[in-house]
Design brief:
This protein is an all-beta fold. It is built from no helices and 10 strands. It has strands at residues 3-7, 11-13, 18-25, 34-39, 46-51, 57-59, 67-72, 77-82, 91-97, 110-115. The protein is globular. The termini are far apart.
Length: 116
């Protein structure tokens, strides 16, 4: 019943922007903090960004100043705007519900490949 459906991942040139989206269904979206993670090949999964119910945000140091997380509660969607992309941003990006709420839900992941 619960689905997080991600979209927007694709190959992109270094320095270019890209926006990911994650559409949620089956949950009361406005009651959840939402998170973006990424996992690069051979690397540990990394928390990228968090947005709270109130719209407060937090970012990993590696993306701070370049990425922006936002949400549209009317669309049950969380976004990740990625600017000035670097090759080391290449990863599978996942959205998830609040880590503090059980059960926790994850999207299927969307591949972002940044080309030099």
């Amino acid at each position: 019943q619960v689905q997080l459906v991600e979209s927007g991942g694709c190959p992109v040139q270094a320095g270019w922007p890209l926006r990911l989206s994650c559409a949620a269904s089956g949950i009361t979206f406005r009651f959840y903090n939402m998170e973006w993670y990424r996992q690069a090949p051979g690397k540990q999964r990394e928390l990228v960004a968090v947005i709270t119910l109130a719209g407060n945000t937090n970012y990993a140091d590696s993306v701070k100043g370049r990425f922006t997380i936002s949400r549209d509660n009317a669309k049950n969607t969380v976004y990740l705007q990625m600017n000035s992309l670097k090759p080391d941003d290449t990863a599978v990006y996942y959205c998830s519900t609040d880590r503090s709420i059980v059960p926790r839900y994850w999207g299927q992941g969307t591949q972002v490949t940044v080309l030099e």
